[in-house]
Amino acid sequence: MDTRSVDLAVQEMLEVAFQNKIETAWDRLNSQQPQCGFGELGLCCRNCTQGPCRIDPFGDGPRKGVCGADADTLVARNLARSIVAGTASHSGHSKHLAHVLKKWADGKAPDYPVKDERKLLAVAQRHGIEVEGKEIKTIARLVAEVALEDFSERETPIAFANRTVTKSRAELWNKFGINPIGIDSIIAEMMHRTTLGVDADANNLLLGSIAAGIADYAGCHMGTDLSDILFGTPTPVFSEMNMGVLDPKQVNVALHGHNPVLSDLLVQVSREMREEAKMAGATGINLVGICCTGSEVLMRHGVPSCTHSVSQELPILTGILDAMVVDYQCVYPSITTLAGCYSTKVITTMSMAKIPGAIHIEIHEEDAWEKGKEILRLAIAAFKERAGRSFHVPQCKEKVIAGFSTEAIVAALAKLNQEEPLQPLIDNIVNGNIQGICLFAGCNNVKVRQDENYIIMAKELAKRNVLLLATGCGAGSLGRLGFMNGEATKAYAGEGMKAVLSAIGEANGLEGPLPPVLHLGSCVDNSRAVDIAVAIAEKLGVDTDMLPVVASAPEYKTEKAFSIGTYAVALGFPTHLGMVPPVVGSKQVVKTLTKDIRGITGGYLIVETNPLEAAKKLFLAIQERRADLGL
Ligand code: BF8
Predict the structure, then answer these.
(1) Counting C-beta atoms within 10 Å of the first and last residue's C-beta, which end of the chain has fewer, N or C?
(2) What average pLDDT does the segment 562-579 reach?
(3) Is ligand 1 within 6 A of the CB of residue 223?
(4) CA angle 252, 257, 262 (to 5 degrees)
(5) Pocket of ligand 1 contains residue 93 by CB under 6 Å
């Protein structure tokens, strides 16, 4: 058994890497062994130059850092900084989108017109913007301004968080003093609080971290809303996933990173460049996605996803990837080293995210289209360069149905009940055909066999009639391994859920059931899952912590995953982590996050590295909530 990945394409390409002596993330993990035990427990502090300080978890060595900070303070401070970094990443992405929308409204970004006016109006109205008699550009500017206002400090809590949750949730956050008044403001505050000699109270630091998590939620929701406004709200789309989507006869371009500002435009530009590609001897331009920006263009254009997360280096080894175009986040800097062995061009596009060895073509909204053409011309030139060279493409790919925005899910349900679209879903939760909902979020992590936790948990929960939602690389895992088509419903869903998904599929003219796992999009699109939960909660007249809804990050790795997990807890969801977070050095922090926090938000962390056990624990959490609702 290959202990590195369940994905056969990845296994095949790792063998190619081995044969060609090419180093991958798995090799680098080996060369890092043994990794720092203090770091793994969260017991190392580098926040001042009297350190680095380490606290001995077994009690024989130092119990305090030079400043006197103990294990609880260290662990809480380190965790807080991770969460804040995640919040900065997601909200940086959404701030970028807000600027693009504003530039378009000001006539400075002609290539970025509003695609979904209906969503623009809905978001405007949600934020109390009067739309009657106003031009679209004016409304767009006002929405962009409301979004940008959320970053500094408002008189009132962050709008994109508070206007998208239940009223009682916002009140609860106020009551406990964890409802931040600005995204950048809470990021700065938490950086301040975690410096030497400020906040030493672990529980107080954790409450501040939850506030930062709520800011992350706002950033994610804003990211989803503004992307839908600028690029269109996704509707169900048929496509494919895995490395078999690469085509030797075409110019293959991987879109990697996160922000659709670049990738969506390249999808449009590629249509114009098709003839140029043909003149170079290619049959066309084949765009494929990697990681979250791949999910963005899959959701809106059906662009197939090639691979995700820890296996992002491997498409280069096929020898037929002509360009990897990246924006920011989750892009391994190693890709330029690998690309150096092939004709692949790595192109960085953002001033804040350069990689040594890459070609840098900076994208600004003002001239994005021309720059997009320049990028694709490099890919076409690389295609010519590889003529006659050998290549190796694993013939693995799976059919997927993606594009499940909240609006698309509601529209699909409306085919069963036009007046009350959510009613069929609620009825089936009440009658037990659907026991509950589990959101799979987060990454792959090279420390666990890629995809394995997702697959085991998805099978176990689907069998028990739990409806599965997925985003980011979690959606990638489940898509690449065949959980996102109607056949998967027949194979894995319990009888109750099978009947429901078949009825929805039939009512919507699909030739089979909906998939057992609904692809909601990229990681910022975890906000779509929250929207679904909030809509159900409001319909039932309860808060989100009463719902049989759970979240899981079985193979997470990034700081962004920490911040998403934090807001899942802030919203009241039992939230599973399949990797042990670096907090075990503090009993107090562990207890607060897994138990005590429940008394505040209703949510809590479940840490379980065994996927089968994890599925059982989540199912139990669902049962508890059903019982509390009298179901
Ligand atoms: O934001 S799941 S490895 S790609 S962090 Fe990154 Fe994790 Fe993938 Fe998207 Ni999300």
Answers:
(1) N
(2) 98
(3) no
(4) 75
(5) no
